Amino acid sequence: MEYRVLGETDVKVSAITFGAWAIGGWMWGGADRNDAVRAIRAAYNEGVTSIDTAPIYGMGVSEEIVAEAISGIPRDKVQILTKFGMRWDVKEGDFVMKSKDNYGNEIDIYKLASKQSIIKECEDSLRRLKTDYIDLMQLHWPDVTTPISETMEAMEMLLQQGKIRAAGVCNYNVDQMKEANQTLKLASDQVSYSMIYRDIEQELVPYCIENKQSVIAYSPLQRGLLTGKIKPGHQFGEGDTREGNRFYTEDNIIKTNKFLDSIRPLAEVKSATLGQLVLRWTIDQPGITVALAGARNEEQAVQNARAINVKLSNEELLFISTKLKEHGF
Ligand SMILES: NC(=O)c1ccc[n+]([C@@H]2O[C@H](COP(=O)([O-])OP(=O)(O)OC[C@H]3O[C@@H](n4cnc5c(N)ncnc54)[C@H](OP(=O)(O)O)[C@@H]3O)[C@@H](O)[C@H]2O)c1
Q1: For the chain, how many structural domains are there in total?
Q2: Ligand 1: which of 292, 302, 304, 309 to mutate, judged by most atoms within 8 Å of the beta carbon?
Q3: Buried b (16+ CB within 10 A) or exposed e, 114-127
Q4: Percent of the chain residues topping a pLDDT of 70
Q5: 185 lies in a domain?
Q6: Is there an atom of ligand 1 within 6 Å of 66 CB?
Q7: How many CB atoms lie within 10 A of CB 297?
Q8: Which of 64, 104, 117, 135 satisfies CB 3.0 to 4.6 Å to 79 for a cystine?
Q9: pLDDT for res 300
Q10: Three-class SS of residue 224?
Q11: What is the pLDDT of residues 83-128, one digit of tens each?
Q12: Ligand 1: does its nearest atom lie under 6 Å from the Cβ of 42?
């Protein structure tokens, strides 16, 4: 594995980090808990020392699974990345959507990043994660009802208390990063980034490179599409929100698979799967510190971790860029 430092902090994480959203089940049509625990342990055995989770992933379930999976590992050998700011247990802040929890109960989700809420959420996460510190605490989504400075002051306080080792955000644009950085120098911004979704290359990545802040790429496999396994007409399980997602329209699946077919020969030469080629490409991009790879079971987790063994030359990276352009990505 390769390990990289987050921003200007002393937190080192694995370049391929385990993404623990799907294992929480919520928005993924459920998940098998035993498979999930085994997946995290298998990833760790391959050198994946970092795990990205969030309270909203299964309303606490993902964090509890992470705690169970790492219970036998010395705490300083793993890095826990979690979040705050998506509440299902209050009716205040910025309303996001109606949803259902893992038991089918109706819930309302709010973005809330007030100081009081952050303090409570941090305690709840520490309890569920069975730990006394979080390696990277991240705002999950911007909350327009709370001044950015208030959120940053709260994270500064948690840093001083030693409850978190580093502070980051998710889904911030450059203007929001600039404003936040006036109160607290953030370690990272976690944003959506994959071969076929590269909007952040325009402004956010150059800003983060200039300001020595890490970009943590989420959904690098475009939620499974970039493994090449999704064909038109794919049947998703009940509650799996990929169905209806804009990347999962029939046209886009066909277009993406044609592109994947064009880079398949390179994957074969490298004795790699398409997913491994995609993950390696992701962490080779300028400014990208980490790729968060979600996995539901041991097999996926091991395969994703071993993407690190794929080495791409400049010519091979250029070949992929050319194919992306040729296929309209
Ligand atoms: N901050 C945010 O707002 C935000 C948003 C999204 C994600 N994230 C984070 O980023 C992480 C990764 O993103 P993601 O989970 O959305 O998507 P992803 O990593 O692009 O894809 C993960 C999914 O693809 C499938 N998959 C993974 N490895 C595979 C393999 N080797 N072979 C075949 N299928 C494979 C699995 O689903 P199936 O088996 O069901 O196909 C898995 O759940 C999340 O877990 C979460 O930690 C953060």
Answers
A1: 1
A2: 292
A3: beebbbbbbeebbe
A4: 100
A5: yes
A6: no
A7: 17
A8: 135
A9: 98
A10: helix
A11: 999 999 999 999 999 999 988 899 999 999 999 999 999 999 999 9
A12: no
297 within a domain of the structure (yes/no): yes
- Which residue lies with its CA nearest to atom 24 of ligand 1? 224
Q: How far is the CA of 19 from the centre of ligand 1 (A)?
A: 6
The answer as to whether 85 is a domain residue is yes
Report the pLDDT averaged over residues 129-152: 98
The pTM of the full predicted model, rounded to 2 decimals, is: 0.98
CATH number at residue 174: 3.20.20.100
Domain extent for 155 = 3-224+274-310
Q: For a ligand 1 pocket test, name from 223, 276, 299 the mutation site with the most ligand atoms within 8 angstroms of its C-beta.
A: 223
Looking from the CA of residue 222, the nearest atom of ligand 1 is 20
pLDDT, one tens digit per residue, over 265-274 is: 999 999 999 9
- CA count, 13 A, side-chain hemisphere, 303: 18
- Tell how strand 106-111 and strand 136-139 pair up: unpaired
Strands 3-5 and 12-14, by their bridges, are antiparallel
Does the C-beta of 277 come closer than 6 Å to ligand 1?
no
pLDDT at 102: 86
The 10s digit of each residue's pLDDT in 219-260 is: 999 999 999 999 999 999 988 999 989 999 999 999 999 999
Alpha-carbon gap, residue 107 to 128, rounded angstroms: 20
Dig out the tokens for 6 from the structure: 């987050």
**240 within domain boundaries:** no
The torsion angle over the Cα atoms of residues 13, 17, 21 and 23, rounded to 10 degrees, is: -120
- Residue 317 has a CB neighbour count (10 Å cut-off) of 14
